[in-house]
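From the shared-data thread, chain only:
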Amino acid sequence: MKKIIITLLFITISANIFAMCGDRGLWFFPENQEIKQNSWIMITAYSMSQEVVNKLNTKYPVYLQAGRHKVKLTIVSRQEGMFSQTQVILKPEKQLKKGKTYHLKIDNLKNGSEDDEFSDWAYEIEEINKKTWTVVNETDTEAPVWNKKPKFKETLCDHFGCGPALYAIFNCEIKDDSEVLIKTEFTNLKTNETTIYYLTADNKEIKIGHGMCSGAFSFGNEGENKKFSVKFALLDASGNELNKYTKPIKFNHPYKEPEF
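Structure, as tokens:
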């Protein structure tokens, strides 16, 4: 009886976690409400929302608007993650006006028929309509620098209903006047496959890997004796780069068998 209860509880928790994954997601950078006059924008999309960022400025024009002041956003780069995520970095074609509050706009997102799986953009429209930034009277022309270069800390493996969350954690400290993106080059040393993706530092930590449902980097088959390397460069929210990579850091596959 006890085993049955535990099994039912596990199934219930797994189902709830799966529901939490959803099939859409959008995240925006900079995360702060205030930005500089020369700030760039990054949009990260999960699962079905990737269709939007993959067709920006072809099917879906993207821009910032404050009243009648409309500023087109041009694509600087697009990065496809290894596990259901894609990001695009966008640059305003002209300097933003101080004191103005700009709304993010993406045209042609219309809710359509149930027969078209990519026509119902209700979630995306709602999230985009909520996104605004207010411009301060500043520009940032200084490149970010490392106060402390990344150093390996540990690997993490948390088991969930839909699969494990796997990460390699690195400590670091960065100095800059704007929010900073960490250009991360991840290499599978067995296959020599390399993926580049931009991350943020959370509480002075860089997390390399993926959660239960998505992420920038994937380690492949679990339990294999694989090794990886990673190196880092910096790009701030105003487009200033420290484009020299750090030395590669090697680490092992984070996967660990679950304990019962």
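The longest helix spans residues 2-21.
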